[in-house]
Design the sequence.
């Protein structure tokens, strides 16, 4: 894997409250992007990976870490062979790259990310 964690996402039922909390706690500022599901709020700290926050009804309130990979299909296939369950398989994020969302053999959610070249 080329980089361990490259992006972090928070699904929250209260986006405004989460942005206020993390903005004050971490000094983050947010860039809101309209999406079909609502607003996706990007943040980028001075160091380390950035990420986004959003609200998706029916999904648990949780952080989802993304691991950077060179080839999304190869990495997803390898994770599956090691016992992961695929939730979202090799989905394109137009203009940005490709992602897969998995549940590892212990039950933890993880995502894989191949950035667009």
Sequence:
């Amino acid at each position: 894997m080329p980089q361990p964690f490259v992006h972090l996402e928070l699904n929250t039922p209260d986006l405004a409250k989460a942005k206020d909390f993390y903005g004050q706690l971490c000094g983050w500022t947010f860039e809101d992007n309209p999406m079909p599901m609502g607003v996706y709020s990007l943040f980028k700290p001075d160091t380390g990976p950035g990420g986004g926050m959003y609200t998706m009804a029916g999904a648990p309130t949780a952080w989802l870490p993304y691991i950077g990979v060179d080839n999304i299909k190869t990495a997803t296939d390898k994770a599956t062979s090691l016992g992961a369950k695929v939730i979202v398989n090799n989905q394109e994020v137009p203009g940005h790259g490709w992602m897969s969302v998995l549940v590892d053999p212990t039950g933890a959610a993880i995502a894989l990310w191949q950035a667009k070249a």
